[in-house]
Design a protein that fits this description.
Distance between the termini: 22 Å
Radius of gyration: 26 Å
Shape: globular
Strand order of the largest sheet: 8-9-7-10-11-6-12
Strand content: 15-25%
């Protein structure tokens, strides 16, 4: 099976009298009707052919996200049977970052309760109140929401779900992992009670099935879950929201490899439900649908962003800074970072230190020629064990020798295969070694670690240093005073199409844990565009540049690309049975990218696995999907058992 992407729904911008309607123009009015389903024979989530999911121009016209300006929205009336809860949601100022707002005025209009939406937390976003009003009015707005730094985003998502549930409709909210699920579900339960349920793999079959039935029967109106929640059988769907769609956990690793974001956009388009892609950063895929007009920006004014964001700096970013500390860019933790951490600890605030790798010294290389150090037995990477293992090992000096991360054999007599040198150097410093160094630099200060199997959700307030791997940063009530983002090159230098996008997303996630008057120091080259986007806190601008760059060189989401993985024989067999579109471009074959999952079980691993890429224009994407599906069917009838995997727009291209 080949899973066709859902982003085709945003390929075409609204059309009016033969002219393209800009996003700003189409933002002037809320859709007066839901999106019409595709024509007969067009696809649906239930299994109609995926090539017809792209709406025609008439279907998209008028389906805008926002209704005028925020000022206009303040005077817009929204009706519903549960206006009491809606009024409290719209006027909630628990974390709006300013003076408490007055309660919204409620007027009577022929027996209907009309809530005049006040500013509240959503008032900090341009068109924010209008978006909430459109949801409460049963419309189907679609938006790319960039949450402000320090925003209580679980509460905001719960408010959107509550606005839909008050109209008797259902909402699906997707999050990357269990930690986020617990936070969002707690807020939804606080607003909606037992009508909000969570769906995740960790529930177990019995509990998951009971909740699935509750959603199917309509007793549970709000579903909060991980990627599989996008298939929840919600009745009268009114909203699909996805938080942090750039997280790779949204990509299903099993056939037909659907991505939760693409399925969510398909369901939104076919049902007329509202769609929200939310996060602190933005992916190129969401920027593509924004530029097409299918969705619209839901962002804050630059002055509001500046007030909410912490102060972000780069060591040695000015000539004066370089004069004060000439080695600021060369050392791993410069003096300015230590000074900022000491000042925060003195004030009783916490310090967050983000490192890209766990362990002690997880990567070694030859000190002379910089060739990665490999094991002589299995060719695996050599690393130093963590500090606890080194001090507790009874072998004494042998415990200081590097060991293989694959087979575990200790390499007591390393010799470089390239130059013959016996000297080693650390390529990456892990979280354990970093915590050890900071413990010596700040004696008497608690040092906490978060990562791997010892991940912390929250930490108690107080002066402390929290060393966390990427994605495992715990929440500190009130926010950290300082955040240090180390080894930025390890994220930026990955051989991956989404390396810069992913680096910015992870940096911003860590920076949002810092209080608004705090400081974030990123150890990186200040001239890198991704670093500058972080300093300016400009995720939309970075996504716009990233999308334009991919369009220039022909990579998704500007084109459709299929990745075919397998042996040379199985790939040749597939291509021989495939009637490819005329404009297809074949790239490869090349070896399967390092870290990519094999298309077969470990016991059937052949000597070599290859990958070819098939690239076509977006308009030819449905034809490519049809051709590959037909070829897979032919292979199945021939009972071909050669391992093969076909993916459309895979997350990992290489």
């Amino acid at each position: 099976m080949v899973a066709n992407s859902a982003a085709d729904a945003g390929d075409k911008a609204p059309v009016r009298d033969g002219e393209l309607v800009s996003a700003a123009e189409s933002a002037g009015a809320v859709a007066a009707r839901p999106v019409e389903p595709a024509s007969s024979g067009a696809p649906s989530i239930a299994g109609r052919p995926s090539e017809s999911v792209s709406p025609n121009d008439d279907e998209i016209e008028g389906d805008s996200v926002v209704a005028g300006s925020a000022a206009e929205a303040s005077a817009t009336a929204s009706t519903g049977s549960g206006s009491g809860k809606l009024a409290s949601v719209a006027a909630d100022t628990g974390d709006g970052g300013g003076e408490p707002e007055p309660e919204p005025e409620v007027e009577s209009d022929g027996g209907l309760s009309v809530a005049v939406v006040g500013q509240g937390p959503w008032g900090r976003y341009i068109h924010g109140p209008a978006f909430l009003t459109a949801l409460a009015g049963g419309k189907g707005p679609r938006a790319a929401w960039q949450a402000l730094p320090g925003e209580d985003w679980p509460r905001r998502l719960a408010e959107l779900a509550a606005a839909v549930a008050e109209q008797g409709r259902s909402a699906i909210v997707m999050v990357p992992d269990q930690r986020d699920l617990d936070r969002v579900l707690a807020e939804c339960t606080r607003l909606l009670g037992e009508s909000a349920v969570g769906l995740s793999a960790g529930l177990g079959p019995a509990a998951r099935y009971r909740r699935w039935l509750a959603v199917l029967r309509g007793t549970a109106r709000v579903v909060v879950g991980t990627r599989s929640a996008v298939f929840a059988p919600a009745k009268d769907l009114g909203l699909i929201a996805i938080w942090d769609d750039g997280d790779d956990t949204y990509a299903e690793p099993r056939s037909p490899y659907p991505h939760a974001r693409e399925v969510a956009m398909l369901r939104s388009h076919e049902t007329g439900a509202a769609f929200v892609a939310a996060g602190f950063a933005r992916t190129a895929e969401i920027q593509a649908v924004v530029e097409s007009g299918w969705a619209h920006d839901l962002v804050a004014d630059r002055m509001v962003v500046r007030d909410a964001a912490p102060r972000i700096s780069v060591p040695g970013d000015t000539d004066l800074a370089m004069e004060r500390d000439p080695v600021a860019r060369a050392v791993r933790i410069p003096g300015v970072a230590y000074a900022a951490a000491r000042a925060a600890l003195k004030e009783g605030a916490g310090v967050l230190v983000q490192v890209p790798r766990r362990g002690y010294v997880p990567s070694l290389a030859c000190a002379k020629c910089r060739t990665p150090a490999r094991c002589r037995h299995c060719n695996g990477p050599l690393a130093l064990p963590d500090g606890r293992a080194r001090h507790s090992d009874s072998q004494g000096d042998a415990a200081h020798s590097p060991s293989c991360r694959w087979c575990g054999i200790t390499e007591a007599a390393f010799r470089c295969s390239s130059c013959g040198s016996r000297a080693l150097r650390a390529v990456v410093i892990g979280a354990t070694r970093t915590a050890e160094e900071l413990g010596r630099a700040f004696p008497g200060v608690p040092i906490r670690g978060s990562g791997g199997g010892a991940m912390l959700d929250t930490v108690e307030p107080g002066p402390q240093v929290v060393v966390a791997t990427v994605g495992a940063e715990p929440v500190l009530p009130g926010g950290y005073g300082v955040a240090l983002l180390l080894d930025s090159w390890a994220l930026l230098s990955r051989a991956d199409l989404r390396a810069s996008e992913d680096a910015l997303r992870r940096w911003m996630t860590a920076a949002t844990l810092v209080r608004s008057r705090g400081q974030v120091i990123v150890m990186a080259d200040p001239g890198i565009p991704t670093v500058q986007a972080l300093v300016r806190w400009d995720p939309v601008g970075h996504a716009r540049v990233e999308y334009a760059s991919r369009a220039e060189v022909g990579f998704p989401p500007s084109v459709r690309m299929a990745a075919v993985d397998g042996t040379s024989d199985s790939i040749a067999e597939l291509l021989s049975a495939t009637d490819l579109p005329a404009d297809v471009e074949v790239l490869g074959p090349v070896p399967l990218p390092i870290g990519a999952r094999k298309p077969f079980s470990s016991g059937d691993t052949p000597a070599e696995v290859e990958r070819i890429l098939l690239r076509v224009d977006r308009k030819s994407g449905p034809a490519l999907a049809r051709a590959l599906t037909a070829a897979q069917a032919i292979r199945s009838t021939h009972r071909s058992d050669a391992p093969l995997r076909v993916q459309i727009d895979p997350v990992d291209i290489g």
